[in-house]
Specification:
967 residues; alpha/beta; Dna Topoisomerase Vi A Subunit, Chain: A, domain 2; 6 domains; five-stranded mixed sheet; 22% strand; elongated
Length: 967
């Protein structure tokens, strides 16, 4: 037992405790200075001095008596003495934890005598308990209480094994207790058997605390304390009967036996003794797994009016307490308070049982307060009307809500909503329901239990099952966090996975602690860890450029196969063009052999590398999306787009982008928005369906003019949700959902800030729709490749393969996170598509004419205004702005193969503009330098350097002018 002096020894004679509560007293130790103990007092009136074994505070502005450090803790935190001891012991790491070197018996051995048989066990008992031994059993336990339950101290316990007698002796730090247990013969109450239960409460190995002797006497079904309860019942009625007949008014009347007021089912020996010390009758089983029978419960009710159960408040205790309450609805359950688990016991574990409670709250009134809150799960009650002399049934609302709570029905705390959210908790799984689901459950409940029609009608007709009444169900605040910065939890029917960069850690015991998961996020498939489907190598060359390679191993994941084909940007060359002169059978054989091949032999090394990087980027993006953790430095949104370059305004689509988001959405809470509306963000209630539990917001099929930049603040920060008919609320970044977009277009605002926020995924046109407007030979869908709909027409093995693939994507992403790597697909085609979009078809036609390779407008300054006016007339667009024209011109200069650059830097002024004087007027020019001109400039510079070094060899081939004259 931890004493006050133990805490003072660990806190500089209590000085640390005082300064914890009154840091302003730091300069007043052992001197005449005073400090203000209460902030609102005018003058400092408290002093700090050491008295005997500890420092104390005397406040002359208050009571003027010296307060010890523990007194101060009790005062400031409103605790009793034992609670203060527990709080301070935890704060200053003072323990009375069991130690093998200290908590051990004295053991002696000797040879067995001829009379001592193999397997014999014998013992020697003490007359009484010491005060220390009683304290170990419970804070209020006295000799009379252990006597009442037939407990003894064993001076020694001996057993014979291998012809040797081993004797354990009780020591001051290791008591051995024994309880004499009586087994009555039901056919003859005069015949009884006895066995002893040996209890070693301070054994550091908890599983070895109990044993029995002699063997074979203890019955399989045995309730400790039941024999004592029967005897108490007999004495109770003997005393009642004597009092009855001592009353002359009862002469000639028969005495009717009365039941004891109550009995208590306890979770163990020490809990039972604590109940007995409070003046009540305890019962307890030999283990937490004991399955009490209806017959046993019925036999207990022969002797008591009310039966209480006091379960532990650890996970097992709660489960067993709930099970007992729902099996036997009339049992009242005494639930210990939640705060109890905040304290530690002598094994360093959270306190959980009744003895722990009594140690911290030893007053009888504290226990009576618990009893006042104890309810049975039976929610109907019978009342008698004195006026009508009739019985009637009614629903006890408190008991009804209690019973529903045992079945997991609660309301969920949500400060962001005015409407009530009804949920059902089963284990650690949570399902959102409606009020009418609770009413249906209760109606089914009374029918399944074959309860009377009166009770069934009571349930059907009661207003206590209305939504208004059920809104008062217990409100709970649950932790749904399923991630850490380094890993992600995945929940399955029968196990939990924790996925990190090192792989999968499996916990088949299920969800632990106070973590909960939405039932919709539980993956309801049979699952097992499979070998790796792919191996990705990431290297950085001497120039700092990242290189990626993937080796696809043997696998059966349809999702991986689908992703391979959506990454095959050179499929037409491999599957069509190279076979134009070959026979059908040869081409078809190749197609079947390489149906899901990212590195087909008909492709060049560069083409294979491009396809592989496309696939690796998708794997990286999938892993990112499966990790629910949000890091400010890795705040991205997925952006899936087509690789094919089309004409301006051409919408390709049908490439399988949406299917990937659909597949991922099956494993996370997703809100899907239609991106076809370019004014999507003008809807004030756009995120009406988003809440704190939304994992992912997916904007599907984005319109060409949908401004993705409007989402940037939500990608890198929190988001404000404005639900219909409710108040708006803010979701902080850490809890806000991730975003994903799919589109057939390149982002209109393609610039560095876009790159910083998006994870691109490029989809080939391997899956496509053949129309009159395109030149595809046939249509091909995902179903065509697999002969069925993926995910919906699946076997359990196929689910297992695809789930393993997603998990392996997550593992790969977490590995890259540890290295600070962000993987994007090859961006050449994306950039090319963006530039073509910036130009538009009209401008491209005009520019190739106006700046034709044989024309007169290259390699010289021309008026920007004149060029703009020329384009306006060509395209019949009189209102086009200079800004739009300049943007298109820059795109043309980037795309045109014979243009080196627009406005060479050496002709620009300090403001970066090409300003020239023409007829004494400064105007802005444009200058498109050709590749040929730039080569001439570079070669001229090289020749000049060679002349300066007096080199004789010309380091380049001469360039000929168009008339054949050497330059």
């Amino acid at each position: 037992m931890i004493k006050a002096q133990d805490i003072y020894n660990a806190s500089r004679d209590g000085l640390d405790i005082i300064l914890y509560y009154y840091p302003q007293a730091a300069g007043c130790v052992d001197n005449k200075k005073k400090f203000k103990r209460r902030p609102n007092e005018d003058d400092a009136s408290a002093c700090l001095k050491k008295y005997g074994d500890c420092y104390k505070v005397t406040d002359f502005g208050d009571q003027g008596t010296a307060m010890s450090p523990i007194d101060i803790c009790m005062y400031e935190e409103n605790l009793n003495f034992q609670e203060a001891i527990a709080v301070l012991a935890s704060r200053y790491n003072v323990t009375d934890e069991l130690k093998r070197s200290v908590n051990k018996p004295e053991i002696r051995k000797r040879p067995a005598t001829a009379e001592e048989k193999e397997g014999d066990k014998f013992f020697e008992l003490e007359e009484t308990f010491t005060q220390e031994q009683l304290r170990i059993l419970g804070p209020r336990v006295e000799q009379q209480h252990v006597d009442a339950l037939h407990w003894h101290v064993a001076k020694s316990v001996s057993y014979v094994r291998n012809r040797e007698v081993t004797t354990k002796y009780t020591t001051p730090t290791y008591p051995i207790f024994m309880r004499e247990c009586i087994v009555e013969d039901n056919s003859d109450p005069t015949k009884v058997k006895k066995f002893f239960k040996i209890y070693e409460p301070l054994n550091p190995d908890k599983q070895w605390r109990f044993s029995y002797t002699p063997e074979g006497v203890k019955p399989k079904q045995y309730i400790n304390g039941f024999y004592e309860l029967q005897k108490a019942y007999a004495k109770y009625n003997a005393d009642k009967e004597a009092d009855f007949y001592n009353n002359p008014s009862n002469e000639g009347k028969p005495y009717k036996e009365e039941k004891l007021p109550e009995a208590f089912i306890c979770s163990g020996e020490r809990d039972a003794l604590c109940v007995r010390a409070l003046g009540y009758y305890p019962l307890w089983f030999n283990s937490e797994t004991y399955k009490v029978t209806p017959e046993e419960i019925k036999s207990i009710y022969k002797y008591v009016e009310v039966l209480y159960n006091i379960p532990d408040i650890d996970a097992t205790g709660r489960a067993k307490g709930t099970e007992l309450a729902l099996r036997f609805l009339q049992i009242h359950t005494v639930w210990l308070p939640e705060w109890l688990s905040n304290y530690k016991d002598n094994r360093g574990k959270p306190r959980k049982d009744f003895r722990d409670f009594v140690e911290l709250r030893p007053k009888t009134e504290d226990f009576r307060n618990l009893l006042n809150l104890a309810n049975p799960a039976q929610f109907w009650c019978e009342t008698f009307n004195e006026r009508t002399r009739k019985k009637s049934l009614d629903i006890d609302t408190d008991c009804l809500h209690y019973m529903l709570g045992l079945y997991g029905f609660n309301t969920l705390k949500d400060d962001n909503s005015d409407s009530t959210k009804y949920i059902r908790i089963q284990g650690h799984k949570v399902e959102q329901i409606k009020a009418k689901d609770i009413a249906k459950f209760l109606s089914l409940f009374v029918r399944e239990r074959y309860l009377s029609r009166d009770i069934r009608n009571l349930v059907l007709n009661s207003q206590r099952l209305s939504e208004a009444s059920l809104g008062n169900l217990k409100e709970v605040d649950l932790d749904f966090c399923n991630f850490t910065p380094d890993g992600q939890y995945l929940f399955f029917k029968d196990q939990m996975w924790y996925v990190t960069k090192n792989g999968v850690e499996i916990d088949k015991t299920g969800i632990q602690g106070d973590r909960y998961v939405w039932d919709s996020n539980v993956i309801k498939h049979k699952i097992s860890v499979l070998p790796e489907f792919f191996d990705i190598k990431v290297n950085k060359d001497a120039d700092g450029v990242m290189h990626y390679d993937i080796d696809i191993k043997e696998h059966n994941s349809n999702i991986l196969r689908y992703l391979i084909n959506t990454s095959r940007v050179h499929w037409r060359k491999e599957l069509e063009y190279v076979w134009e002169d070959a026979g059908f059978d040869e081409a078809e054989a190749y197609r079947q052999t390489h149906k899901f091949d990212i590195a087909g032999p008909k492709l060049s090394a560069d083409e294979i590398a491009e396809q592989k990087q496309n696939l690796i980027a998708k794997i990286f993006a999938i892993g990112y999306n499966f990790h629910r953790y949000k890091s400010p430095s890795r705040a991205w949104a997925l952006y899936a787009m087509d690789n094919k370059i089309g004409e301006d305004g051409e919408c390709n689509g049908r490439s399988g982008k949406s299917f990937l988001f659909t597949a991922m959405s099956g494993f996370m809470n997703t809100v899907k928005l239609s991106g076809r509306n370019p004014k999507l963000m003008e809807n004030p209630h756009l995120f009406d369906q988003v809440n704190l539990h939304t994992d992912f917001v997916y904007v599907d099929d984005c319109d060409k003019y949908l401004n993705v930049s409007l989402f940037y603040d939500m990608i890198t920060g929190g988001m404000t949700v404005n639900p219909k008919n409710n108040k708006s609320f803010y979701i902080p970044f850490e809890q806000a959902p991730k975003f994903g977009f799919s589109t057939n277009y390149v982002p209109t605002d393609f610039h560095p800030s876009t790159n910083a926020r998006l994870l691109f995924m490029v989809f080939s046109d391997y899956y496509h729709e053949s129309t009159e407007e395109n030149n595809y030979l046939e249509s091909r869908s995902i179903r065509d490749d697999f002969g069925k709909n993926l995910l919906t027409d699946y076997t359990e093995d196929e689910w297992n393969n695809d789930i393993n693939f997603f998990v392996q994507c997550l593992v790969f992403y977490l590995k890259m996170t540890a290295q600070g790597i962000k993987i994007q697909p090859p961006m050449q085609n994306i950039i090319k598509r963006k530039l073509k979009t910036d130009m538009g078809a009209n401008f491209e036609d005009w520019a190739y004419q106006y700046f034709s390779e044989d024309g007169e407008n290259l390699d010289k300054n021309i008026s920007r205004e004149e060029a703009l006016e020329n384009f306006r007339k060509f395209a019949n667009l009189p209102r086009i702005t200079m800004q739009r024209f300049t943007k298109a011109l820059k795109a043309f200069a980037e795309l045109c193969p014979y243009i080196y650059c627009l406005n060479p830097p050496e002709i620009l002024n300090s403001a970066g503009r090409n300003m020239q004087k023409v007829e004494n007027k400064t105007i802005e020019m444009i200058h498109l330098r050709t590749v040929t001109q730039q080569k001439m400039i570079d070669d001229g510079a090289a020749l000049q350097k060679a002349v300066e070094r007096k080199e004789t060899e010309v380091p380049f081939a001469p360039v000929e002018e168009k008339d054949g004259t050497p330059f």
